[in-house]
Amino acid sequence: MADAAVTLAEGFRGRIVVPGDAEYDRARGVWNAAVDRRPAVIAQCTGVADVLQAVAVAREHGLPAAVRGAGHSLAGLGTGEGAMLIDLSGLTGVRVDPERRTARAQPGVTWGGFDHETQAFGLAAPGAPYSAAGIAGTTLGGGIGWLARAYGLTCDNLVEADVVTAEGRLLTASAASHPELFAGLRGGGGNFGVVTSFTYRLHRVGPHVLCGALYLPGEALAETVAAVRDFMAQAPDGLTAACEFGRPRGVSELPAGEAAVRIGLCWAGRADRGREVVAPLRALPGVVADTVQTRPYTLWQQMLDTGRGPGAGVFGRSEFLSVLDGAAIDCLAEQVAALPSPDAHVQLAFLGGAVARVGAEDGAYTYRQAPYLLSAVGRWTTGPAEPQVAWVRRCWEAMRPFSSGGAYVNLMGLEGQGRVVEAYGLAKYERLVALKDRYDPGNLFRVNQNIRPSG
Ligand SMILES: Cc1cc2nc3c(=O)[nH]c(=O)nc-3n(C[C@H](O)[C@H](O)[C@H](O)COP(=O)(O)OP(=O)(O)OC[C@H]3O[C@@H](n4cnc5c(N)ncnc54)[C@H](O)[C@@H]3O)c2cc1C
């Protein structure tokens, strides 16, 4: 596709990388090392003008446009076979307005970069709990993190976005301007254009927050999950919690190499009140290690970084759950007992709170009332992928009977069109198709969890 690269070069300020260039393999790579796709042209953009140019050339040459924020999609959607890869990862500016409590950020910013800037003012927007993940993909898919129950999803805190559409217009979308497009951006997974700027509402958080983890041996899983479930059903919204079932490293109180339960906690509020709130969880029978204390919010946002860097193959499935009864917990315990490797894990996030207070039709994100989100992830650096993939599939299939109906866009693999419909529910999916017809009828932006235009 040398022609497209030649056309792109006229007026493009960033770097253009094509197959055969020395940096091509590095430039096409994404966080999930199992993903091996070869874009036709990589357009490393320096700003909106470059994005406009790349979109125009992709359209003109009939190339699908793949868009990369920070390239941390589980499904590897930050790169695309035969595509014009619009790489925004070099755009990393953040401007905080402490008086208005807003932050405007470019699309290559990671949560580590965003939190660093906003925490200088004791402010934060709810983000993903992994510092290398991009704000762009996270926001466009929803965004579930340590402040979710207190302040909602990342997309609930988006107040404005600049978008380059498939036809090459730059629109500013907000509740007041192009409101349908704005709603589609909030969970619609990048289907409607290239977002070149995100403006967020910020909240007073930190710089220190009460947070930490409680560790219990795997044999306590059933009683622990039931107790956390009951506790979170009446917990104040300021508390967000998630359990992880895996084989944690470096916890000397746990038998090495065996499955264990980690309850991660984050309290958004005064630490003394938070200590009272979380006391019953800390007193659960079987807790062998307790790291709950006040610490910098930025540090807590990096808690999941260890062991989750790039360079490994990853396969995952997610499901919103409506039921977590004895049968569901027994089923979960069986899956955890069969973990295929030290890096495989299951996460169970407790939702509700501010997430559930947003109207079902307010944005593309769908499962507002689901109380739990389950995700199973297999990871390998050496050895075959197959045992990891097979275990994730078994785990997901076993837990499906307890589903609210669908998957979480940000934690999906490449699971087929039916599954994308399930991620939104049929009625909302059909409304999103109408929006796609309006903003991207030719499906230029299809390297994503694709909402297919009707034509
Ligand atoms: C270890 C790990 C843990 C995670 N934990 C969580 C979690 O707890 N909660 C949670 O909510 N998520 C979590 N995520 C998921 C993460 O939020 C998503 O993978 C997110 O998509 C990453 O954003 P990115 O910009 O790096 O993605 P990319 O791979 O760059 O892009 C992802 C998708 O968004 C589209 N896109 C990206 N930028 C733009 C743009 N500017 N305009 C239009 N479309 C765009 C892409 O085309 C692609 O389809 C986790 C991810 C990892 C790797």
Please give the domain count: 3
Radius of gyration: 21 Å
Q: What is the end-to-end distance?
A: 26 Å
CATH class of the largest domain: Alpha Beta
Can you give the mean pLDDT?
Answer: 97
Number of strands: 19
Tell me, what's the shape? Answer: globular
Bound molecules: flavin-adenine dinucleotide
Tell me the number of helical segments per DSSP (H or I, 4 or more residues long): 14
- The structural class is alpha+beta
CATH architecture of the largest domain: 3-Layer(aba) Sandwich
Regions with little confidence, pLDDT below 50 for 5+ residues: none
Q: In what range is the share of β-strand residues?
A: 15-25%
Query: Do you know the CATH topology of the largest domain?
Result: Vanillyl-alcohol Oxidase, Chain A, domain 3
Largest sheet: 8 strands, antiparallel
Helix content: 25-40%
Question: What's the gist of this structure?
Answer:
This protein has 455 residues and is α+β, with helices and mostly antiparallel strands. It is 29% helix and 23% strand.
Tell me about this structure:
With 455 residues, the chain is an alpha+beta fold. The chain has three domains: 2-87, 2-Layer Sandwich (Uridine Diphospho-n-acetylenolpyruvylglucosamine Reductase, domain 2), CATH 3.30.43; 94-204 and 433-439, 2-Layer Sandwich (Uridine Diphospho-n-acetylenolpyruvylglucosamine Reductase, domain 3), CATH 3.30.465.10; 208-408, Vanillyl-alcohol Oxidase, Chain A, domain 3 (3-Layer(aba) Sandwich). 29% of the residues lie in helices and 23% in strands. It has 14 helices and 19 strands. It has helices at residues 2-9, 24-28, 48-61, 111-119, 135-141, 148-151, 179-185, 221-233, 271-282, 297-300, 326-337, 386-399, 417-424, 426-439; strands at 15-17, 41-44, 65-68, 84-87, 94-97, 102-105, 123-124, 158-164, 170-174, 194-201, 203-204, 208-217, 239-246, 260-267, 289-290, 293-296, 313-321, 345-350, 372-380. Strands 12, 13, 14, 15, 16, 17, 18 and 19 form an eight-stranded antiparallel sheet that branches. A five-stranded antiparallel sheet has the order 5-6-10-8-9. Strand 8 and strand 9 (170-174) form a beta hairpin. The protein is globular, with a radius of gyration of 21 Å. The chain starts with a helix and ends in a 16-residue tail after the last helix. The model has no long low-confidence stretch (mean pLDDT 97). The chain binds flavin-adenine dinucleotide.
